Amino acid sequence: CQYLPKALRLPPDFRRASLMALRFSSGMAGGEASDMYLTASARAAWHGLGARLALYFLWCNRPHSAGELRLVSPDPETPPAADFNLLGDARDVARLAAGTRLLMRLIVSPALNPSPGDLFPAGFSPRIKRLSRVSRWNGWRTETLGRMLDLSGPLRRMALGLFMSGGALEGLTDDRALDAFIHQNVFGVWHASGTCRLGDPADPEAVVDPDGRVIGSDNLWVADASVMPRLPTANTNIPTIMIAEKISDAMAQAI
C-alpha cells in the first residue's frame, strides 16, 4: 500500500479506482508467457481510510499449485471441504517473490514516490476485513484513522502500523523476510476453477466429457469455470461465458 497525498487522491464520485495494470512474464523455468499480473488502484477501499491509500496487487495468472475439493458427507446440504493449497509448489513462491521485487523497483523512485516511508507491505488481515464491512461505525473509524494519516510524523507512523504486515517495506529485501511475508499474506483472487475438469471419458481424472456431461451420469451437465482443465492466463469471466455457450448449444442440439 501507499499513502496518497491529497493531490493524488481520486474524487469521491470517481467510481473506478484501478486505472493501470501490468501483465508480464516471469521468465522462470516452468513459467509461461504472461503468467504474472500486477494492478495499481488509487483507492484501497470504500471508506475514508481507503480513499487515502493506493493499493498494489500482484498475482500468478497460472499457478503450479493445485488445490483439492473433497466431499465430507453424503448429505447434499453439507458443504465440501476445500483446500486451495495456494503455495504448495515452490515455483509459485519464487514467482511471487520476484514479482514483489519488481514492484518495489517500480514504485520506490524519486519521480513516483519521493517518500519511501509512505509505502508499506499490507495483507488482507482479519482487522482489514472487519474495517471493510460497510457500516456507519466503520465509516467514522476509518475517517478518523485517515485524518491521522494526513498528519506528519509519529501519528502517521502509528496509524500505518495498524495495517503494516511484515514490517517496513525495506525489510522485504531480505529473502527470508520476503518469503515469510508471502506465506503469511497470500490469498486467492476469486477465480477458483477446475474442480470438475473436462477431458476424455477414459481419463480417470476427468469429471465431465468434452460436451460438459458428467461422466457416468445421465442428464447432468456442468457449464462453468469448474470444467476448465487448467487456468487461463487471464480473468475467467469471458472463458466461462464461452464454455457455457458451447455446452448449452450442444445440449440444445441433442434435444
Distance between the termini: 54 Å
Give the strand order of the largest sheet, numbering strands 1, 2, ... along the chain. Answer: 1-4-3-2
Q: Decide which structural class fits the backbone.
A: alpha+beta
Low-confidence stretches: none
Q: What overall form do the CA principal axes indicate?
A: elongated
Q: What is the radius of gyration?
A: 22 Å
Give the strand tally: 6
Mean pLDDT, rounded to whole units? 86
Approximately how much helix is present in the residues?
25-40%
Query: Helical element count?
Result: 6
Residue fraction in strands: 5-15%
Largest sheet: 4 strands, antiparallel
Following the backbone from N to C, one meets helices and strands in this order, namely EEEEEEHHHHHH
Write structural notes for this entry.
Helices cover 30% and strands 11% of the residues. The termini are far apart. The mean pLDDT is 86. By secondary structure, it is an alpha+beta fold. The longest helix has 18 residues. It is elongated, with a radius of gyration of 22 Å. The strands form 2 sheets. It has a 4-stranded antiparallel sheet. It has a two-stranded antiparallel sheet with strand order 5-6.
Structure at a glance:
This protein is of the alpha+beta class. 30% of the residues lie in helices and 11% in strands. The radius of gyration is 22 Å and the shape is elongated.
